[in-house]
Design brief:
Length: about 300
Amino acid sequence: MPEQPLTLDAVLTDEAVLSTYRRMFAALARDSGAVVDDPALVDIAETLFAAFAEAGEEWLTHEQMRFACRAYPTDQFDNRLRVLKGLGAIREVFPKPNQLRYRASFTSVVGLMFIRRMMDDGGQSEMHRLLALEDLNVADPRTTMEEARQSAVNLTRAFRLWALELITLTMGTIEELREQAPKLWGTEEIARRAQGLHGTILTRWPELDRVCTDLRAAIYAYSDASRRAAGRLADSAGTTRNLTLLPTETWRTFAQTASRERLAAVLDGFVFDAPAPWHDPAAIARAVDEAPRPAPAQPTP
């Protein structure tokens, strides 16, 4: 296909989209092309946005921003301010030289709220909101069949990827599964909402039966994977109610990865008996010989 001529409108549209993305995820940027690797850097961004909200229409000067972030080292503050300004999360009140006051981007604040929710529950709350919005959209008389098709395709992709992630977690270490446990919260409610949405789409647009079949299969795969992951998580807890007792896998992983000094520090104070048989071998052999044996099953006449 021949390339479409690049117009000014197209360039401006693309730049507007990119600008929104930059401001939305500016709190996670280490520089203009990389994400942060220190949670404190995200905290600085959140502290700055809170200070801007308190300041109101007066906005903030550089000195006031530094005072709000006085608990953080100067080099970290300077880095965050430079990145946030570079990505448009913090901008001059008026674009003129020697600007003294700055304002915060609403998009960046919303982006940080979204990020915090994702960090708290791994996306569960966002999935609930998404399903609620999609349910309203497909019930709207103005919604077209093509819009409903795209909604079903997007949800199918999301549930397939979610199911694959849960399967991977179930087959991985119990420590990683425990860390990702929030992804198992409310899975039955999510599946129920998704099935209701599937039913609405199929009822209004029977022509989308193939797309709905794919969505239904993805929902079932997600439900099955979430039940397996929850089952393994429950099995790892054992029958004891003493929550200070760690599962065997955790101890095994720690013993394999810990340094000699850390392992010695954990085991310090434990008394281990020298290897010795608890019973006489003859007594064990006699007990085995005298143990009752189940009678063979009789064939049905």
